[in-house]
Amino acid sequence: MFLDGHIALITGAGQGIGKACAFAIASKGADLIVLEKNAEALGEVTRELKQSGYGVTGHVVDLTNIEELREIVGAIQKVRMIDILVNNAGFDRPGTSDKIDKKDFDEVITIHVTVPLTLIQMLLPDMRRTGWGRIINLSSVYGAIGGKGEVAYSTAKAGIIGLTKSVARECGKDGVTVNAVLPGLIRTPTIEAFMAEKYKREIIADTPLGRMAEPEEVARVIAFLASDDASFITGAALPVSGGWGI
Ligand SMILES: NC(=O)c1ccc[n+]([C@@H]2O[C@H](COP(=O)([O-])OP(=O)(O)OC[C@H]3O[C@@H](n4cnc5c(N)ncnc54)[C@H](O)[C@@H]3O)[C@@H](O)[C@H]2O)c1
Predict the structure, then answer these.
(1) How much is the CA Rg of the chain, to the nearest whole Å?
(2) DSSP 3-state assignment of 51?
(3) CA distances (Å), 233 to each of 9, 101, 130, 226, in order?
(4) Hey, which of 37, 69, 93 would you mutate to test ligand 1's pocket, going by the most ligand atoms within 8 Å of its Cβ?
(5) Residue 142 catalytic?
(6) What is the pTM of this model?
(7) Which contacts (CB < 8 Å, 24+ apart) does range 194-197 have?
(8) Maximum alpha-carbon separation in the chain
(9) How far apart are the first and last CA of the chain?
(10) Which atom of ligand 1 is nearest to 157's Cα?
(11) Atom number, ligand 1, closest to the C-alpha of residue 142
């Protein structure tokens, strides 16, 4: 299989898009390292992956604790060469620009921008040394068009596009590609639990394909970007949105 011999680090793979990504990338042959703060979800997903015959190691970590993150990843790097990175973990703190709490704003920037930057800083040197690497960052349609009442999230998701394009320019000649995926409305546990039906209807009405997507529909694109089939794609900000935001 085309990712045999590769090792992928995926953040936030306890559920939703990250979990679907774990299965999509493992099914192409890569071994997985999963960083996730929810110990129960992590236990469940690693069990399911192992039952399917995939190689996976899970670590419980709150990624926003940057020092702890550095320690854990540093220890992993002493024994394993990670050459695929999927910066997926995320959360939202809604609010308009006049009301957003600074702490909420900073937390959203940390998880969506500072954590990906930290992991890129740690993993990119190894990828450059071996001349092959794949970095895929989860942005959002909100990062391209903005979101009403979503000032922190939209700012962070625009930030990760800038990070993607800048790092793509830095390391293309070393065989490392860096791309961002911009999902539209995806049926994940968080969206199902927390997004009001009214907002879902509004987004779907503005989505040419007229529906939400399943996490696997995003995960398949991420697995493609991780593969050699995507060898000439870098710096892309690819919507997987059913046309929402075009
Ligand atoms: N679902 C959507 O409609 C949608 C749309 C656009 C972009 N996205 C983006 O895609 C990514 C995944 O979204 P999702 O809907 O699958 O999310 P989700 O909330 O369903 O799952 C996120 C996972 O990340 C983990 N996580 C969150 N914060 C963490 C932390 N500090 N440390 C470690 N783990 C942490 C959670 O425990 C969870 O398992 C996110 O970056 C999100 O912003 C999602």
Answers:
(1) 17
(2) helix
(3) 20, 38, 19, 10
(4) 37
(5) no
(6) 0.99
(7) none
(8) 51
(9) 34
(10) 43
(11) 6
Q: Which two tokens stand for residue 41?
A: 């979800």
Distance CA 16, CA 89 (A): 10
One digit per residue, the tens of pLDDT, for the chain of length 246 reads: 689 999 999 999 999 999 999 999 999 999 999 999 999 999 999 999 999 999 999 999 999 999 999 999 999 999 999 999 999 999 999 999 999 999 999 999 999 999 999 999 999 999 999 999 999 999 999 999 999 999 999 999 999 999 999 999 999 999 999 999 999 999 999 999 999 999 999 999 999 999 999 999 999 999 999 999 999 999 999 999 999 999
Does domain 7-187+215-234 correspond to CATH entry 1.20.120.530? Answer: no
Ligand 1 contact via 138 beta carbon (within 6 Å): yes
C-alpha distance from residue 144 to each of 52, 78, 115, 222, 238 (Å): 37, 38, 20, 19, 10
- How far apart, in whole angstroms, are the C-alpha atoms of residue 8 and residue 2? 13
CA 90 to ligand 1 center in whole angstroms:
4
- In whole angstroms, how far apart are CA 29 and each of 52, 69, 140? 12, 26, 27
Ligand 1 proximity of 42 Cβ (cutoff 6 Å): no
> Cα–Cα distance between 217 and 246 in angstroms, integer?
18
